[in-house]
Amino acid sequence: MLSIRDLAVSFQTRRGAVNAVRGVSFDVATGEVLGIVGESGSGKSVTSYALMRILDAGGAITAGDVSYSGLDLRRASEADMRDIRGREISMIFQNPRAALNPIRKVGHQIEDVLRRHAKATRQDARQKAIAALEAVRITDAEARYDAYPFELSGGMCQRVVIAIALACDPRLLIADEPTTGLDITTQKAVMELVSALIRARGMGAIVITHDLGLAAQYCDRIVVMKDGQIVETGDPEALFARPRHAYTRKLVDATPRAGESIRSLLPAEIRTPDLPHKVHERPILAVRDLTKTYRGKSGPVHAVRGISFEVKEGQSVGLVGESGCGKSTTSEMLVRLLDPTSGEILFDGQDIAGIPAGRFARNPRRGDIQMVFQDATDSLNPRHSARQTIADPLRRLGGMGGAKLAARVDELADLTGLPRTLLDRFPHQLSGGQKARVGIARAIALNPRFLILDEPTAALDVSIQAVVLNLLADLRAALGMSYLFVSHDLHVVRLLCDHVIVMKGGEIVEQGPAEQVMASPAHPYTQELLSAAPKPPARRLVPAP
Amino acid sequence: MSARLTSVLSRIAQAIPVVIGVVVISFVLTRALPGDPAVYFAGAAADEASIAEVREALGLDKPMLRQFIIYVGDLARGDLGQSISSGRPVAEDLASRLPASLELTLSALLLSCAVAVPLGVLAATRPGSPVDHLCRVLVTAGVSLPTFFTGILLIYVFYYLLGIAPSPLGRLDFIYIEPDHVTGFYLIDAALAGDAETFLGALKQLVLPAITLALFTMAPIARMTRAAMLGALSADFVRTARAAGLTNRTVLYGYAFRNALLPVVTTLGMVFSFTLGANVLVEKVFAWPGIGSYAVEALVVSDYAAVQGFVLAMAFLFVLLNLVIDLAYTLIDPRIGFAAK
Amino acid sequence: MTQVSPDSAERPRSSGALDHLIYVLKANPVTLLAFVMFALIVISALFGPALVPYDPLQSDAANALQAPSAAHWFGTDSLGRDVFSRVIVATRLDLVISVAAVALSFVLGSVLGAVAGYWGGWIDVVLNRILDTIMAFPLFVLAMGIVAAMGNTIENIIYATAIINVPFYARLVRAEVNIRRGAGFALAARLSGNSDLRVLALHIFPNALPPMMVQVSLNLGWAILNAAGLSFIGLGVRPPTPEWGIMVAEGANFIVSGEWWLAVFPGLWLMFAVFTFNLLGDGLRDIVDPRKRT
């Protein structure tokens, strides 16, 4: 149905033309679901924008052919393309809330498309729009017709986007990272819905994603892209069992799955033996009945409702939950950036909950409790070089200066695997992985005893996530730190943690040893979380060296 | 809907402290004006005793707080005091001159919106193109024009050199008869009376000062329109609309422009403030009998009741307008009242 | 996925600020022009009084109201004073007024805005109400009122111009600080043992400077217009001091009789100065606006 041959796309930038896509060829047959997998910058999205001819300004197809049912899409007139978009080929996007016009009722947005492609008249548009909403299983579609996007949840917005895309019965659907940014349970619901709808209508589909596991679960065939080129194509089982290209192998390895160790995420060539870390009986942190209540416009908001748990010296504890479960509020309170409403935080036996967050900077405990932040870009001061950033805590709390300071920064760079030559660079001159290393070096600069990791890999590509997780494991073994690993992903948490806490609605619903929680979750919510995560097919096993 | 109502009410409530602040500032400012009104009222031949008498009569010997309370009481009754120079109540003076200022300001705003909004949209749809650069230079030049100088330049060219424009003296040449007072806007009143000749006469007088003001206000409107349009055009929902095959027209006007309009409406408030300020200068240049030239004359003779009345009137006008803009915004933007924080 | 080019992801970008500056200047010759014009204005402010051919205050009744000529480039006024000399000499005064006013409002606005943006709470509420009140006056009208009330001096023009500009800086800094208050790097700075004041002054505030610089440049132009406007209606600088607003006001009386040069040259030079600052501000906006960095 769709055939792409030797497609090349380039963007005009101030440093000349950048070839975002080079010599890409693939086909999509009627009823087939094709997955395009790649990390950021691989050109996977650009490919789809190019075939829809909706590239950003400065981007253009420079070579190749795109043909859809015998039509030459590269040379079709703009008017013809507009007829094809939405009626023959549709798209859904990531970040569904932003993908909808914020000040137009969702029903009207569906009608716009129906009317544009003459699939509805003024009289029956409303009825057909409601039918489209019902088709994506929105309950009470009649009432949702009049809703604005801001009144709907993220998952609901994505359903509306899907309704818009499918309203005119297109034959090909392109889903561009349709679940990125959604909670894991919503992710599953959205993917199941898309999958069911395209199968039921016998449509072809292209699913673009960075998640190899997700692609494997929902696609018939997978194309792996890197640096604008296709490196490998194959069906999911074969790809996982016998990846031919080194890059595919790296991706397959780095995709977390049940029952494997953190070391197995790394390519076999650089895999090192597992280092044991020692867990003591003595708790370094004990939380008792911790509560945080905000004043909201319509009454108090209970972000955290009286949670209690312990972290033993040397132990790594995972704190898992979806957005809004209170895990971030909890970690901010523990790291003493936020004052709890009530409850105790016993650090090394001493209650630190009562010390106001504003004054904790001068507390001798400050250096003992540190944090690695979620977004490495956001957590580095854009005007400070890597060296200044790492030196900041050493100057302020360590009282260091001069040669001693410089030596310690170099030492920290070595420890976190950051080349010393990069120390004088500014954040915008560093890659995502390098920025993550700077953030970790700053956090461990003062040899903290307790480190909170707030989704430290959420913004990273999987291959870099694998490296960073292993770095954290190495540092734990070398420095004997205790971790509290905050994440939405149970499978990632399990890799690093001995103990897991699951939170929902500000409360702890389940906690226990990691293996036990994973193997036999007691609470229905934990079960739901576990079953929602994509399950990559088995891969060939390479014995650790 | 109730959330919407709450936000409307809270917006109105927000205006209250501002109004109080305006009253306090205007009181303080005018009490600090140089020159003693008592001396002025007492006349040239007055001695110490008669000045003191007048001061007592005017309430100027009382403590400041007491004076302020009296002042607020007078304000509540709509009494802005007596103008020294015209001898009439200030409220009356202002009321008779306000329509002239409003007619000028509003015509200028309409004119500049009519030019600046399309220009901004055009520039945003073709960023980096000659149209964009032209828009930028025009707009920057426009905001750099000192209004009093542009006015003089226009008078020189169109009145002295070309002789097209009427003499720059007021709202209507003396050969015409003022239209019956309905709204106080000569254009509207003349149109209501069906008097085409007077309408044209008034229009002729209005054109130059209105252009002068409009040139100055075009810049912020065009700049904001361009920025808002650029933002909206690069938004995800525009991509969704394009991917759904909607026509360029629908995408541009139905989706991007309507979203871009919201910040533009907000800027209008600021622009209105600039216009009211620039009005003072333009009225002086064109001898326009509005409240701006009234204030300048009052300043020269330290006529504090008149200046105070003018400052208050301007501020109230502006607070009111901002309120209207914000309320309009509430009606346009469905998100107001539902904001998370 | 946004349409990122491959080089933006993992490979570090090697461009410096200078690179970007050169790129912007190349892409935008208008900005380059603005820098040249700015240099011209600074030179006439610094060296103007030493360079002009005539004493700007020296009247010469025999040579009154002369049209522009080789001897008097911009002609002479009703007292026979050389308009060119007066226009150039006035640069320093107008520039001093606007720079001083903008500097004052920059400092005051930054402190108020930063405090309100960082700590929020009642300080923020009170500040916002005060700013609202100032902004409730048409700003030129407020400046008129202040100068009239405090007296007709150059210092008072500076204060008045500064006061009406404070809200712009305070609002801008407040917004910039507020969005960065919860940014990872600010939280990290607190974890590194920085006090709130240090975090605000050394970590957050410097990041708010680029948009402030744009505002400064645009405001300089506006402050000049404001000062000239006040002089035009007879507030502030008094004759015979050479000042653009006064010169235009004096020249206005002669325009209807055809002696155009009296008002036109000071007006044009005033326009030129304001235009320069506005172009500069626009150019700076391009340089600091990260969205323009492709």
Q: What does this 3D model show about the protein?
A:
With 545 residues, chain A is an alpha/beta fold. Chain A has helices at 44-52, 78-84, 106-116, 125-135, 141-144, 154-166, 184-201, 212-218, 236-241, 246-254, 327-334, 386-396, 402-415, 432-444, 462-479, 490-496, 514-519, 524-532, and strands spanning 2-13, 16-28, 33-37, 59-68, 71-72, 89-92, 172-176, 204-209, 221-226, 229-234, 283-296, 299-312, 316-320, 342-347, 350-351, 369-372, 450-454, 482-487, 499-504, 507-513. Chain A has a domain at 283-532: P-loop containing nucleotide triphosphate hydrolases (Rossmann fold, 3-Layer(aba) Sandwich). Helices cover 33% and strands 25% of the residues of chain A. With 341 residues, chain B is mainly α. Chain B folds into two domains: 3-76, no CATH class; 97-300, Orthogonal Bundle (MetI-like fold). The two termini of chain B are 18 Å apart. Chain C has 294 residues and is an all-alpha fold. Chain C is 72% helix and 0% strand. Chain C has helices at 17-27, 29-51, 83-119, 121-136, 139-150, 154-181, 184-191, 196-232, 244-255, 261-288. The longest helix of chain C is centred in the middle third of the chain and has 37 residues, at 83-119. In chain C, 52% of the residues are buried. The model of chain C is unreliable at 1-15 and 290-294 (pLDDT under 50). Chains A and B meet through α2, α3 and α6 of A and α10 and α11 of B. Chain C: It is a multi-pass membrane protein.
